[in-house]
Design goal:
The structure holds two protein chains of two kinds. By secondary structure, chain A is an all-beta fold. Chain A contains no helices and eleven strands. The chains are: A mainly beta, B mainly beta.
Chain lengths: ~110, ~120
């Protein structure tokens, strides 16, 4: 059982480049989330989805876009990367609105030069 | 929106001692308070959670207490072991409302170091 898988695990970008992070879960979870983790700031929510075809903004959505075309996948896109987007990105999922536990991927470390 | 403050940011204890991490939250509507442990290079993992209708919950060496009136909750780890060394995050949310996303707001984390 793979759980939540993120690809790629590491990426270096130049300012202005674009990229997509892929999150895949095999637990048939309805809810999926993208967080970023920065030193001293904990985990901050970027975007989330409560089901296939739906997305919504979180706390820090600027500069990011997301899509959930299939229930098992949640994509995070950076259209024009900036150094301020250097961070570790975590995808998480959970079964539904009445379950609490979030299952996290192992993270994707992005560096923007 | 919800705001969660967590203290201390770093905590060093001797093996076998107890460790306590404290969090406060701002939104009185929040009803679900989980604690996550993050080991180096890994994603956070749920270790214990508590709902607002319960004042205390225990699971072997870890326990969580909740004071709704004061809007704070704490993680207690007894008989600490080297493998308890990690970053711990508290979080809060209003759960059970469909469509709202049940968005967890996390504290800033506590680096716990258990020394031999």
């Amino acid at each position: 059982n793979a759980g939540v898988t993120q690809t790629p695990k590491f990426r270096v970008l130049k300012t202005g480049q674009s990229m997509t992070l892929l999150c895949a879960q095999d637990m048939n979870h309805e809810y999926m989330y993208w967080y970023r983790q920065d030193p001293g700031m904990g985990l901050r929510l970027i975007h989330y989805s409560v089901g296939e075809g739906t997305t919504a903004k979180g706390e820090v959505p600027d500069g990011y876009n997301v899509s959930r075309l299939k229930k098992q996948n949640f994509l995070l896109g950076l259209e024009s990367a900036a150094p301020s987007q250097t961070s570790v990105y975590f995808c998480a999922s959970k079964l539904g609105s009445y379950t609490g536990e979030l299952f996290f991927g192992e993270g994707s470390r992005l560096t923007v030069l | 929106g919800e705001n969660v403050e967590q203290h201390p940011s770093t905590l060093s204890v001797q093996e076998g001692d107890s460790a306590v991490i404290k969090c406060t939250y701002s939104d009185s509507a929040s009803n679900y308070f989980p604690w996550y442990k993050q080991e180096l290079g890994k994603g956070p993992q749920l270790i214990i959670d508590i709902r607002s209708n319960v004042g205390e919950k225990k699971d072997q060496r870890i326990a969580v207490t909740l004071n709704k009136t004061a809007k704070h909750f704490s993680l207690h780890i007894t008989e600490t072991q080297p493998e308890d060394s990690a970053v711990y995050f508290c979080a809060a949310t209003l759960m059970g409302v469909t469509g709202g996303g049940n968005k967890l707001t996390f504290g800033t984390g506590t680096q716990l170091k258990v020394e031999l």
